[in-house]
Amino acid sequence: MRVVGGSLKGRVxxxxxxxxxxxxxxxxxxxxxNMLGQRFDGERVLDLFAGTGSLGIEAISRGAAEAVFVDxxxxxxxxxxxxxxxxxxxxxxxxxRDVVSALKGFKGTAFDVIFIDAPxxxxxxxxxxLTEIHRRELLSSDGLxxxxxSKRYVGEVDFSALSNMSIKKEKTYGDTAIVILSxxxx
Length: 186
Hints:
By secondary structure, the protein is α/β, with parallel strands linked by helices. It has one domain (6-14, 24-183): 3-Layer(aba) Sandwich (Rossmann fold), CATH 3.40.50. Helices cover 26% and strands 27% of the residues. The chain contains 5 helices and 7 strands. The protein has helices spanning 26-36, 54-61, 75-84, 99-104, 123-135, and strands at residues 44-48, 66-71, 92-96, 111-116, 139-150, 165-173, 176-183. A 7-stranded mixed beta sheet has the order 3-2-1-4-5-7-6, sandwiched between helices. Helix 2 (54-61) links the parallel strand 1 and strand 2.
C-alpha cells in the first residue's frame, strides 16, 4: 500500500495485518483520485472509517490543506502520519470515536471532500452517515462525497432517495463500487 500521487508519491504506508479490515487498494485509490481530478488546492477533507489514513493522506499529498481522520482506532493513521512526516497539528486531525457520534460533534464545519469507506455489508450505516452529513451541513456547496462499497450492496443504498444529493460519477473495480455524490443544484 502506497501513496499513488502528489508530493508523497511512492511512499509506503503501514497496512493492516489480518483479514478483519479491507483497505482501499492502490488501484482503486488511484481511480478515485482520477475521478476527482485536480481539485486539491487547500481543500478540507474528512476521511471516515479512516483505517490506515490512506485516502486522507493521499489528499494531503495532492495539496489538501487539512484532513480530519475519524475511526474507532487511529493507531495506524498516527503511525503513517508520523512515518510520512505529516504534522498532525498543522494538516491532520484525528478523532477516535464511532463515526456517527463523531459527526454529531461537528459544528459549523464544512468539508470539500468527504470519503466514506464504511463496512461493506452495512448499507443502513452508510445511509445514516449520509443523512447525518446533510443534517449537520458538513459538505461545502461545491463539495463531493466519495462512497466506497461493495458492488453487491449498491442496490441497498437508494442514492436517488437522497433529495439533497445527486450521483456525479459511479464506477466499479472488481467487487468495489465507487459512488461520487454532489449537492443537487437549487
